[in-house]
């Protein structure tokens, strides 16, 4: 049996302009907006680390340097905290091993597929993960850890999926599901096809791609010669669809919760949900919410 290469690299496409959150995102990257007290990008990186991923590749755009700075050592801040005998442990997750954070620039916004392709030189000839930080995935273990565990069993390409109401499918990439693999309690399904943002009547299922992927490096060669798709952009979904039939492709149904933090409503929902679960504030937040609902 051929030993599979471990998943040690992850690509984070973070070059978007965040126009739905203007004016908040005029100078602050949307990935740095906090859910309670951690920015969105931190949740994604923590999830990657839990899954054993070591190298984080950020595909950035102009004005996104704050994302890289977040994972640097803030010497003045940490020195001040140390002098004041303040706990520094809270900053530990923001520290990166030298060489484990890499940034590449997507100079022109040509779509998600193009953003992933921009990381091709760093990914090299290895399987890799993709995280869309807008998709906040909360579970134990995390979504990517669940996917890596499945990858260890079946290899190939995997995508995370969730079921949504049928009327919402045209906003997402949708899978055409095949047979469920035995021994996985229905969590692992063959993928027969992928469609990006289909009309409701043409959607093959209500299972949407939910922002986490494990892909083989051949996808980079597919993206290199790919034409534009939905929205006039180079779509990652189209590239993956072209690979089906040439390599194993499976969907992992995530056992956890997803928050669409690319929308204002989803962002507020995530903030409230996570605040309610916090031991240091959950009771107070619940009381505050109840008071506001009464007013």
Report on the structure:
The protein has 295 residues and is of the alpha/beta class. The protein contains 10 helices and 13 strands. It has helices at residues 40-50, 65-70, 75-83, 112-117, 120-123, 143-154, 218-224, 236-243, 264-277, 282-294, and strands at residues 9-13, 34-35, 38-39, 55-60, 101-105, 128-131, 135-138, 157-163, 173-180, 188-196, 207-215, 249-253, 257-260. The strands form 3 sheets. It has a 9-stranded mixed sheet. The radius of gyration is 20 Å and the shape is globular.
List its traits.
13 strands; 31% helix; Spore Coat Polysaccharide Biosynthesis Protein SpsA, Chain A; 24% strand; two-stranded antiparallel ribbon; 9-stranded mixed beta sheet; 295 residues; alpha/beta; globular
Largest sheet: 9 strands, mixed
Fraction of residues in helix: 25-40%
CATH class: Alpha Beta
Tally of alpha and pi helices:
10
Average pLDDT level: 89
**Total beta strand runs:** 13
**Terminal Cα span:** 65 Å
Q: How would you describe the shape?
A: globular
Query: How is the CATH topology named?
Result: Spore Coat Polysaccharide Biosynthesis Protein SpsA, Chain A
How big a fraction of the residues is strand?
15-25%
> Using only CA atoms, what is the Rg?
20 Å
CATH homologous superfamily descriptor: Spore Coat Polysaccharide Biosynthesis Protein SpsA, Chain A
**H/E series:** EEEHEHHEHHEEHEEEEHHEEHH
Question: What low-confidence regions span 5 or more consecutive residues with pLDDT below 50?
Answer: none
CATH architecture: Alpha-Beta Complex
How many separate domains? 1
- Record the strand order, biggest sheet: 5-4-1-6-11-8-12-10-9
Structural class: alpha/beta
């Amino acid at each position: 049996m051929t030993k599979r290469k471990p998943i040690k690299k992850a690509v984070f496409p973070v070059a978007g302009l965040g126009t739905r959150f203007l004016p908040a995102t005029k100078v602050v990257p949307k990935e740095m907006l906090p859910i309670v007290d951690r920015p969105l990008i931190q949740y994604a990186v923590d999830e990657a680390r839990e899954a054993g991923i070591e190298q984080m590749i950020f595909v950035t755009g102009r004005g996104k340097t704050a994302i890289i700075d977040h994972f640097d050592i803030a010497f003045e801040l940490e020195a001040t905290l140390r002098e004041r005998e303040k706990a520094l442990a809270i900053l530990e997750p923001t520290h990166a091993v030298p060489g484990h954070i890499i940034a590449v620039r997507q100079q022109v916004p040509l779509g998600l597929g193009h953003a992933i392709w921009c990381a091709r030189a760093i990914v090299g000839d290895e399987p890799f993960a993709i995280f869309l930080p807008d998709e906040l995935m909360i579970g134990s273990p995390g979504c990517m850890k669940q996917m890596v565990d499945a990858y260890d069993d079946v290899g190939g390409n995997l995508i995370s999926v969730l079921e949504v109401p049928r009327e919402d499918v045209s906003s997402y990439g949708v899978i055409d599901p095949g047979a469920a693999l035995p021994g996985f309690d229905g969590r692992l399904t063959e993928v027969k096809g992928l469609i990006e943002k289909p009309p409701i009547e043409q959607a093959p299922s209500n299972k949407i791609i939910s922002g986490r992927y494990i892909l083989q490096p051949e996808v980079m060669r597919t993206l290199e010669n790919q034409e534009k798709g939905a929205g006039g952009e180079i779509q990652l979904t189209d590239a993956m669809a072209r690979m089906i039939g040439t390599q194993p492709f499976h969907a992992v149904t995530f056992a956890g919760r997803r928050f669409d933090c690319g929308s204002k409503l989803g962002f507020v929902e995530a903030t409230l949900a996570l605040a309610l679960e916090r031991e240091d504030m959950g009771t107070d937040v619940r009381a505050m919410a109840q008071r506001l609902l009464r007013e």
